[in-house]
Structure formats: C-alpha cells, structure tokens
Amino acid sequence: MEWSLAIGAAVALVVATTIGGLIWSRRQGAVRAGGLDRVSAADVGVEALGGSATLLQFSTEFCSRCPGTARALGSIAAEREGVDHIDVDLTHRADLASAFRVTQTPTTLIVDGDGIVRARIGGPPRPDAVREQLDLISRSSHV
After folding, report:
1. What is the CATH number of domain 30-141?
2. Strand, coil or helix: what is 59?
C-alpha cells in the first residue's frame, strides 16, 4: 500500500508540474495591457522617446534571451518611422526594476508617443504581436 501511495503522489507531482510549466510557457511573450503608467525619457536616461512609439526593453547582463530580443525589437523599430527601441540594462539600475515592476528579463514596454505604456510583454516578445500593438497605437493617434 505504501508504494501505491508514493507512486500516486509522484504522478500527481509530475502532472501538476507539467500543467504549471505549460501555463508559464503560454504566458511568455504574451501582450498584456499596459495600464496607466507613464514613461519619460529622463526616467530611463535617454534624450528622447520615439515620436510615435518606443519599444522599451529591460535587460540584464546575464540574460541569455535579451540579445536576441534586442535584435528583434531593433529590427521592428527600423521598419517604422517614429518608432525607437531603447534597451535599458537593469544590472546597475535596480530602481528602474522596482519603478516599472520588472520581475523578469527581458521585459518590454510598448510606449506611445505621449509616454503612456500601452502594452507590457514578459519574456521574449512575439514579433507579430509587437507589430500589432504598434498598428493599434498608430491607428489611435490618427483618430
């Protein structure tokens, strides 16, 4: 009887871990609403944000996924006029991690031309989702 209980507990643990991993994996790169946060160029130590939008990436020195994310976001920004990509290294700026509630790297904030955070992405962003958010920002600024 003891072995059957142990095997049952092990199976339950594997199932729970698998479900948790699938949920976590599904949330990586997903776009969430940005809320009412506002970002200024001074907040992140740059001269100016993008005229129509900014892809604000938070990274650290030891983040293995951050360089690929920077290349992808830089490429998307280069496709669109008025869109900038800014990569902020949080290694020596823990204050920014707290201020912008960054709990993982990379984290990307999609900020409109007025500095309002329109979307937040935890983990490597899906390029099509970033482009879709930029399209939404572009449409709302022409209304």
Report:
1. 3.40.30.10
2. strand
